[in-house]
Amino acid sequence: MKTIYKKLLFLFLIFPFAAFAQTLSGVVLDAASNQPLPGVNVIVKGANKSTTTDFDGKFQLGGLNNGDLVQFSFIGYTAQEVKYSGQKSVSISLVEEANQLQEVVVQVGYGGVKKKDLTGSVTQLSSKDFNKGANVTTENLLAGRVAGLTINTGGGAPGSGSQIRIRGGSSLSASNNPLIVIDGLPITEGQNVGSTSILASINPNDIESFNVLKDASASAIYGARAANGVIIITTKRGSKKLSVDYNFQYGSGRVMNTVDIMNSQQYINFIQQNQPSRFSELGIINPNIIDNPSTPQNESQQIYNTNWQKAIYRRTDFVDNNLSIRGQLFNSIPAKLTINNTYQEGLRLTNEFTRNNVSVALNPKLFNEHLKINISALYSNERNRFADGVEGTAIRFDPTKPVYNPYSNNFNGFYEYENPSDPSGLAAQSPRNPVAQLLQTNDRGVNNRFLGNFEVDYKFHFFPDLRAVVNVGFDESNGVRRITRGTNGVGSSEFFAQEPNPRFIGTNIEDEDTRRNKLLDAYFVYNKKFGNTNVEATAGYSYQKFEYNGYRSGNRNNPAAVESFPANPDEVLIGYFARTNINYNDKYLLTLAMRRDGTSRFSEENRWGNYPSAAFAWKLKEDFFENNKTISDLKLRLGWGISGQQNIPVGDFYLPRYSTGLLNSQYSFGGESLTVGVPQSYNPNIKWEETTSYNFGLDYGLFNGRLSGAFDVFYKLTDDLYFAETPYADGSNFGNQGPANGGSFSTKGIEFNLNADVVRGDNFNWNINFNATTFERRIESLPADQVEQFIGSSGAGTGGTSQIRRVGFTPDSFFVYKQLYNLDGSPIDGAFADLNGDGVVNQSDRYLYKNPDPDAVFGFSSNMNYKNFDFSFFLRASVGNRILNQINSTRAYSSFAFANDGQLSNIPVSFNDTQFAIANGQTVLSDLYVENGSFLRMDNITLGYTFPEWLDGKASLRLFTGVQNAFIITEYSGLDPEINNEGRDNTIYPRQRQFLFGANLKF
């Protein structure tokens, strides 16, 4: 009680003083992202009182009087004023200014340029623009956020890589993936063993920005690797002020839906209607019950209702912990330390992804900022438990069978189709229990990766217009993958049939890979203003080397297994590059660039290539709308350039090679048998693919930047396309076909982007972003005077194809039969149109019908902030893409249920719509199964609340919840229309829906 009295007396004594020495505290936030803004100037107008916000955006300003006008200002943002009237705290949201946004520096390769001075088609996304939610891999941060860029994971495997395409790609058979550059280091596409993808080891929390170079005028500075565009990733740097950020996120996921197949009762009805004589094969026999022959039913027959798809899936957990510490070492070196742990379970019962990541950055500036040093280093330990793709078996397996056989101890108690007369104990060619295959397979991978760079940027003291930059990069991955299965496990374990002891020998396989990537860049940058003309010139040299070697044990349980040691010849890339940026009167901009690249992939005659580019921009606003209040920005851009594609899978195919002959192809000389050298086919004329691109663009801003965006029209043509199986002229080689260059391929399209601050206010702000892309791909010519090529499995047997590449049409178009229908609209089984009118329906009656390319793709994001609340969502859409539903085209037949392996198989319920009986080479290619794959997907919804003055003002805390993969709207009858397999849906790893909860804590 005495303590309480003392406190009350103390407050009573200081109250008169507090009445005169009043203090205002609070936090300043970015209006668009609701994130704290450090370094904001907080001043009392007309008085010598001021402070700045700390790294968490917090401030405290004392000595205020009622009526004081407090101003909040920060570079790039519109200043705000608050009249002080005794309030204890305030929360301020500053809005970015359009003209200041133009001062943002965009990375364009070997340097940067102000956004307002860009001449090429480049899009930048900073951390406040990234997608929210459970983004396990880096590329998911910008999925759907950039016009012309599509990112498709192809399924729900945790940590899995994505199909990344910029403007549809530029090749038919070679890689279509863009070049990815991390802190100045271009990385290889090669995925290491033990890892899920090349970007899986990168912590998304560590990314500061993405710069997407879409046209050749911007990307040609990377020469022979830029035909598919370039994505430049910049990681976070150190800071001068000490700050500690801790981010936590938890998610619980479930499967959204499954393939629509028959349940147990539907399947029983189907069997009774179509083959009642096989009803006795349903379920299993209970040996403890004796059948009563006087009754029609079999009392010992035990029927189950097993949903095999749900049996192979589970509820999942996702946990992400990220701790970042930024500040100064020795009060002079900005530094950053980030520690991250990510754990995600896949829907398949045993599938897991774990990443442990540590990154460090040091960014000192010395000698009055003449010397800048950037050091970044990343260590990542990635651990995976892979899971076999058993969806096909789960869809097929008889739903009346149990997961576990209560009456047998064979195969660890799992139900399998047994045959005691077979040495293996299994019925030959029968499907294996998919749950058993998952639980009895231990497939684990570990990948340790170190990635880093050391960059020195020196501005000469005696010649400050000239800078010298040297960047050294290193990337090494060491991966191991081990697969083990027991001897009494799943049917996929290896069976050793050799007498006298045929048996399952299990599986014991180990694979190892080591990949290294070494880089040296050295270049000069000259920047000088001559009157109204500013000139920046860059010239330099680049050396990069890729090394790879591996080990394959084979199945160590098999006495006949042979070890192997795969290795690729070291690949060396050498480049000389130059670029000039000319800015006249801050109105007319010209960029000229040239790169000469050499690669060890090709012969000396084809080793070098030249890649020029040019771009021009005109700030129309300055000449035509200088005093216009509505138009705040208007810039015309024109670009042209040539870029290359050297990432083609040919190895050393340009070299003459020999292999040793077999024992039955030896020569005998003097009674001695000599092994012969057999010449292999080769092609010394293999070379780069080359892409020429043209771009017309318009950047715009309205109403002082409240509306802004870009409009682009592009065309690109790729020549000397790579094809793996090009016919060789008779007698010209040691094989009749092989890798070669030939043919051409074009893409044209339109991109549109809009960013709008719909509402700007003190308490409520609303920002939206919309982007749209449409493009059209066409084959202009094929090698060796071919008119068409047949590709894409039909799903029925071997050798059948379902797609075509034909000159003048979109690649991978579907090549099918035209289905005939009854008067009531139902399809007629086995009836197809005789399109050529010869009285016979055969291969000549197939026709080109639709293609997997979308007519247009869209992205839409919305961010709202009301006081301390934030709400955001993100939508993606694809319109006009077509999918060949091969689950239905190959399985929705009554005959499939009674397959040749002797076991009953489940079938899709779509059989009820068609009543088709037999699958053959024509019915599987009916255009009936080419479906509209258009969709609208809600990728993420997030709701958060920020406590700006948590722990007595020592920290800020944001709590949030959300839904990942909230819903999808589509007419497609299959599981998911967003697939990667050139438009053929033959089962997919489902994407899970996750409910997310998390916290962001800043000290």
Describe the structure using short key phrases:
1003 residues, mainly beta, 22-stranded antiparallel barrel, 5-stranded mixed sheet, 11 helices
Short description:
It is built from eleven helices and 58 strands.
Overview of the molecule:
The protein is mostly beta strands. It is 7% helix and 48% strand. The strands form 14 sheets. It has a 22-stranded antiparallel barrel. Strands 10-15-16-13-14 form a five-stranded mixed β-sheet. A four-stranded antiparallel β-sheet has the order 3-2-5-6, with no helix packed on it. Strand 20 and strand 21 form a beta hairpin. The chain is globular, with a radius of gyration of 33 Å.
User: What is the terminal-to-terminal distance?
Assistant: 35 Å
Report the radius of gyration as a whole number of Å: 33 Å
Low confidence ranges: 1-21
- Proportion of residues in β-strands: over 45%
Helical residues, percent = under 10%
Total beta strand runs: 58
Helical element count? 11
Question: Taking all residues together, what is the mean pLDDT?
Answer: 89
Structural class comes to mainly beta
Largest beta-sheet details: 22 strands, antiparallel, barrel
Outline? globular
